[in-house]
Amino acid sequence: MIYELRVRSFTGTRERSGDFRGLTRRLEYLKRLGADCLWLIPIHPSPLEDDGYDVADYCAVHPDYGTLEDFKAFLAEAHRLGLKVLMDLVLNHTSERHAWFEESRSSKEDPKRDWYVWRKDNTGYSGIGVIFRNKESDNWEWDPRTGEYYWHRFYKTQPDLNFENPEVVEATLDVADFWLGLGVDGFRLDAIHCLYEKEGTSCEHLPETHAYLKKLRRFVDGRHEGKVLLAETVGSTDKIRPYFSGGDECHMAFHFPLAAYLFYGLATEDAGAVRRCFEGFDPLPEDCAWGFMLRNHDDLAIKFLTEEERSVMKRAYAPKPGMVLNDGIRRRLSPLLGDDPSDVRLAHALILSLPGSPVLYYGDEIGMGEDLSLPDRFGLRTPMDWDEAERQERDPASLLSWLRKALSIRKAHPALVRGECRFLDPGNPKVLAFERSLGGRKILAFFNLGRSTERAGTGMTERVSVGDLWTGETRGLDPRVPLPPRSFSWFELPG
Ligand code: BGC
Asked: So which residues are the catalytic ones?
């Protein structure tokens, strides 16, 4: 399991930022929970116009979080506990306060002028949508100093780097090398589909971006062993799948449609919504995996759903004004699901069983709430509630204790982690059923997305004896299994 966290919130309060020393002291908690890997959202010096996704210096740590030495001590302790660490690598843009941009905007003759995308007018790449429409109305920004416009896909304080310039490509490889050299285990590649621009295209997912990723992968593999590249590209599966290419680009990519369709399936009691996420796509290359996250630090992406599906989602999950932000729904997991323990557990269980790596957003293991009075996405990034985490660690009936158990069962059954996945037809549209198999071990998983008890066909004609992974007991399984509302079951079939 990959645990996503924001250093500022993890051991901080509303008044005081968390830091690497605090995080280091909390690593045991993450280990006890069952995390294998941490993903840190950007930790670099930044004016924080986009919570650190506006990097002002790639090779340093934001002073609020400590020093590079503190980071190294944190990394060493994480590794000692067997936890890997992924960092966010924000390549598409820098902060306008990055020295590269300050030089670039200083004059048209500056050697770094061409490190960013400058134009005399703002007519280029027309028709490219504005992502952060809550704050921006154009992807071009006028810069009075030199009388030209620069391109930005995100906030105007985040000018896009010009990847057509080979010096920029080299500089980004140097950044990767710096952190991997310190022992970081890999990167989440932020907004990776936006790297290149080309007139007459959507300026997303361009062949040049894939060529860059192949280059980055060769560079990383050539200089470091066993590192991971994880693509963040929001969109439909057909757009995301190519980031694995033939096993020579990213090792992992977030499966954004899964989260959206999982919630859609819960709202409509339609298990097919989840199953369809996996139909019609080539299996992933060896040593590649999907990253499944229910929620993260951004709004829940629903842009790639049909208009009708989007209205179902908004009706179900964004009933109050302010819950929709740009193209997404800004809610945390537990409140999104009405703080219903069965729904929350079912959603977690699904991403723990489907073929991929589960990604957990800090606080979702204790059902943390949101504060929608905060602007933009900050309502989802409030300080970790340690009192609640400690209370739940002591309570065997808590969500945290449940999740710890679920994660330990998953770890104890490699078929659930790496097994081949075969979807079954349970003869009931509200039930998702699949089999995970590895080395002769077979696990049968059922999920009832219905709000009533449902029966699911096992595909077998007679009663068989199975191991119930949750209770550890052996029991007889009827050819039609009864499943309580919003529940799941994991059974090990006899070998
Ligand atoms: C990150 C956002 C960020 C944006 C620009 C996204 O994909 O997850 O939080 O605002 O990239 O860097």
From this structure: 190, 232
